[in-house]
Design goal:
By secondary structure, this protein is of the alpha+beta class. The protein has 13 helices and 21 strands.
Length: 445
Amino acid sequence: MGQTSRTESKKSATSSFVSPLRSDFIPRRDYVGGDIFDREIELLWPKVWQTACRVEELKKVGDFVRYDIANESFLIVRTGSDTYRAFYNVCPHRGRRLKTESHGNVESGIVCGFHAWSWDRHGTLRSIPLREDWDECATFVDSELNLIAPQVGLWGGWIWINMDPNAPPLIEYLSPAAEKLKNFELENTRLLWHKSLHFPVNWKVVLEAFIEGYHTNGTHPQLLKYGKMAWPGPIEQGLHTTHTSEIHGLPPGMDARQHTYEMMVELNKTLLCQYLDPCISAAKRLLTELPPGMPSEEVYGAFWKFHKEEMEATGAKWPENLQQSDLWSTAWHIFPNTSILPTIDGGLVYRMRPDGMSNDKCILDMWALARFAPGKEPSPPHEIYPTLESFKGQNPFLEQDFRNLLAVQVGMQSRAWAGGRPNPHQETTVVNFHKNLRRYLNLTD
């Protein structure tokens, strides 16, 4: 039997006993089921749009970034002044990876290091040593030996890829998230820092920690001094999901000016992104330019005005169509493996992907985005951390999150754990993720 037949047999054999998914229950099988990883490889990753890299990572014509996920590898190439393509990173001759380095330039062409077959930067076959040896092989056609190119799309300053030639256009796939995020003008942000961490944890476990805020009470207790917090989201959402952040009442003795200032400073010092110098300068002005006891609505209105002034004073462009109501969604989960947390100053983006062919390892990619004056954009290196130990000291806030995930990975292997019991109001993003994942994996209740 062929691979397709084996897969079909596996689908029918497993879907019949899949436990129901509820708003307050995610069965253990969805995480540690024996065939889940195989299904993701065959039915998920080849069908979805994925963030591959930032446009700014490809500064010159011919620049490439290698993007790996599970058993696939791609070269994302800038082929012209404003054109981009992606190619499967595999030689059609003997299957060698064409590039093993993470980035570089192929303006002069792509050459396989095994037998020196070569292609131009557009993926068109250029030369085969001793090509005449195949002259008598009628089925050996040069035009069929061009590099295979998945679909490519651009949105939000990202280059996206999709292995499915019949996939819908990127902007259609991203709806309604793209429309909701449009006013943040993420395409006008640039990298503040870029880090990747090799994590001995399943990619879904890591993802879920970064698409809900309910964990804050236990994981980031330093924020509780700013008031009781909640992170509700709609019960029913589409392919991409979101939630908001609410603070119920100010702590005794703390007015809205002090509350805003101290919380922004806390996040600035521990997260090292999202809330940057313009934000801190604006928050400081609340203390010096507004009277004590000013109503919260007026304080926040002044903060918005001050923030715009402080950002423009740096020469950076304020997102001209951004409204205070746009900040309702504090995090967007772009199915399946990207989390976007936009802010006025920029944002933070996460991507989780299987690390090779292991269900118990992933790569967590983190991009901190910021707004800069033209010509003042930095070029931060891509920092790669092979272990959690090597990441220590890099980001106090995120390291609080990381401490949980190893324990979750180990704990969910216990026979005593039947499955997740998500908060049906504050972890709706997690439940909706699994609903959509089940549809892609052909798993039914």
